[in-house]
User: Fold this.
Amino acid sequence: MAFLLVGLTASGCYSYRFAEDAPVGAVARLRVPIRSAIVDPNSPSETVAVEGKIVSVGDTIWFEASTRHTLGLFRDVVQYDTLRVARDGIASIEVREFSTTKSVLLGAGLVAGTAALAAAAAGAGGGQAGAGPGGDAPQTSTAVIVSVPAGGIGQWLGRVLPSILGLRP
Assistant:
């Protein structure tokens, strides 16, 4: 469990900041306007955000992007593309940066949750049940008390962890 906490805290959380130029090798989100014949030319154009790793910067920006398509229960197809966008065709550039504040809050929340589970498993914070008629009360199983919340947390992390680590777009 401690290894998981260290791994999550080390992977951290990210935030995006607007930039004029994206450094080569950085992960950036480019907002590109959508041009269509159907849209009124006098109205402001809509934009789409495309995230990827910057490969080259010049008159055009080259970046690697990936798209994940889920085809079934355990079947995903990941498509890797190298895209290039003209400098004047970009509405904005947002560079992804490590956020220390978000990472510390995530780590503190995980430590607090783990401590709460450990306290619940140890029986702290609860009163003792009185003996029923005819003898001692049956003892509860600590394995059941710990395994149900731990299983729920494991399922939640299985869904959330890939997106935190950037494995899914």
The chain is about 35% helix and 35% strand. Helices lie at 2-11, 100-122, 142-164. The longest strand covers residues 47-57.
